[in-house]
Structures are given as structure tokens and as C-alpha cells.
TrEMBL record:
Name of the protein in question: PAR14 polymerase
PARP14 second RRM domain span: 5-83
Domain of life per record: Eukaryota
InterPro entries named in the record: Nucleotide-bd_a/b_plait_sf (IPR012677), RRM_PARP14_2 (IPR057050)
């Protein structure tokens, strides 16, 4: 398809692979460096890690390489592209957070962001709902 591939790759079933091990494994498979070329976000509650590439790479080919890699198979992990979404929920926000700060933060490409159309703060929950502009030019 003509849609641009996601810069983020989801790794599921990460419970058998320690964070340091996954970092080294992803550097080996990609030939890139964590922090300089990509970041890893851990979601231990659901045994998932998300690698987001700052440097532009073919993430579809990267997912294929990961799926065929011996160590990834040994750890029984799976890799797939992260689906695009227009709305996310940010939790555990500081009391002093502003909609302006969240807008700027989530528009930053380094954070995997894009143009933001709306931010709704929920101070009683220390959370916010961030809505991104549509991928086809909708706002």
C-alpha cells in the first residue's frame, strides 16, 4: 500500500527477555544505536516493548528480520508494526501539566508524535486524551 509504514515496532511476549538483552538484540538486528537512532518503551504490565525509530529505516523489513532471528524465536517474542491511532491517553501526569506542554510534546517527532488537533486534561485522574490530526490531511 502507499501508506507510510509506522516508525514503531511492537515486541510482544517480552517476559523472557530482560530490557538490557532486548536493547542489545535490537541494536544487533538493526545495526543502529539505542537512544541515538531509536528508543524503547517498556510496558511490563502486558509484557510488551515498543521500539520507535528516530532514524528513518524500513520498519517492515526490520520486522521480517526480527521474526526470522534465532534469539527472537528462542525468547518466543513476536514483532509487528504499531498501528496508527488518532487518539491516545497519557496517564500519571504531574499536577502542573498544561495542554500547551502536552501539545508541544506530542507534536515532537522524536517522541513519535505528529500534529495534534486536541488535548483534553482530566486533572482528577492526572491524565489527558490527546487527539492527533488525521493522516489524510483532516484536522
Amino acid at each position: 500500500d502507499s501508506a507510510e509504514a509506522s516508525p514503531s515496532v511492537v515486541f510482544e511476549n517480552t517476559e523472557r527477555c530482560r530490557p538490557e538483552c532486548l536493547r542489545i538484540l535490537l541494536e544487533t538486528i538493526s545495526g543502529l544505536t539505542v537512544d541515538a537512532d531509536f528508543t524503547i518503551e517498556w510496558i511490563p504490565e502486558i509484557n510488551v516493548a515498543v521500539a520507535t525509530f528516530i532514524k528513518s529505516i524500513d520498519t517492515k523489513k526490520f520486522v521480517e528480520k526480527c521474526s526470522q532471528h534465532k534469539r527472537v524465536k528462542e525468547y518466543k517474542m513476536t514483532a509487528r508494526l504499531l498501528e496508527s491511532t488518532q487518539t491516545i491517553k497519557a496517564e500519571n501526569l504531574p499536577d502542573s501539566i498544561s495542554t500547551d506542554f502536552l501539545t508541544v510534546y506530542f507534536e515532537n517527532p522524536r517522541n513519535g508524535g505528529g500534529p495534534v488537533s486536541d488535548v483534553q486534561l482530566f486533572p482528577e485522574e492526572n491524565s489527558a486524551i490527546i487527539t492527533f490530526c488525521g493522516h489524510k490531511g483532516n484536522t
